[in-house]
Amino acid sequence: MGLLDDVPAVRRIDTNRADAYAFELVGHVSAADIENLYGLLEGAYILHERIDLLIRIINYDGVDWENVSKITRREGRRHALQHIRRCAAVGEPDWTTYASGLFSAPLPVELRHFATAEENEAWAWIDAHPVKAA
């Protein structure tokens, strides 16, 4: 990556549990970043029937959803419903209400929003914690 290349907006956070995944979304999230995130989640779904997920949002500046194919969005939602037990969203904006509206009730995924200052509570809610990469 050169100095002028965009830094990926999606960054994986290592956790203490094999079936707990966490990602940081920073700034503006491009369609390529969403594709990357979906690919990482697909890998997790292959390894684990059910996962817990934490999404940390920092300096949110929008997402290019219109540039992500409808098929990718549809499959991403379908697979999330099949594989995610709990999803904690940390930071602003609170997208959990919007996400809940995309699915029919009852929602098989527990979604919960936490303010940035409540990140420790979010980790406790998914029963995991971040670890530093070796």
Care to describe what's here?
The chain is of the alpha/beta class and 134 residues long. Helices cover 33% and strands 23% of the residues. The model has no long low-confidence stretch (mean pLDDT 89).
Beta percentage is 15-25%
Question: Stretches where pLDDT falls below 50 for ≥5 residues?
Answer: none
**Helix amount:** 25-40%
Sheet of most strands: 5 strands, mixed
* Secondary-structure element pattern, one letter each: EEHEHEHEH
Helix count equals 4
From the N-terminal CA to the C-terminal CA, the straight-line distance is 22 Å
The mean pLDDT is: 89
Structural class: alpha/beta
Shape: globular
Q: Strands across the major sheet, in which order? A: 1-2-3-4-5
Rg over CA atoms: 14 Å
What is the number of strand segments?
A: 5
Short overview:
This protein has 134 residues and is α/β, with parallel strands linked by helices. Helix content is 33%, strand content 23%.
